[in-house]
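Supplementary Methods, section 5.1.

A reviewer requested that the exact input to the structure prediction be made available. We therefore reproduce it here, unchanged from the version used in the analyses.
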Amino acid sequence: MDEEYAEAVLDVVEHVPPGRATTYGTVAEVLRERLGRGGPRMVGQVMARSGGAVPWWRVVDASGRPPAAHRTRALALLRAEGCPLTSHDDDARVVLRRAIWWPDDDGPADVGPGVGAPGGDLSGAGAGGS
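The structure derived from this sequence is encoded token-by-token as follows.
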């Protein structure tokens, strides 16, 4: 894995706002458009090796689960930020349809009553949706 790709992964992850989450696949898709290479497993490898300085807990798998080796800590951090989760136990997942973040999003989302970070709109209106 090259340094350019690793830096690009960390740059994308660094911009995921509190209360939001993205997936390994989303990061990989963005970087395929920018750099023409990579996939979710490569993103996971970068995060495992070098992700400690960025908000690693905001990157989850396609089902919304945080990294298994750090699940308890990740869920605690996500809860503290108001990220919408499926439950209050250690088997919780991020509710991706409410929390997903793309690099062209306009900022933090209003992810629902009592659970979200203040600001933005997850309806998609700010990100080219309707």
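The first strand starts at residue 22 and ends at 23. These observations are discussed further in the main text.
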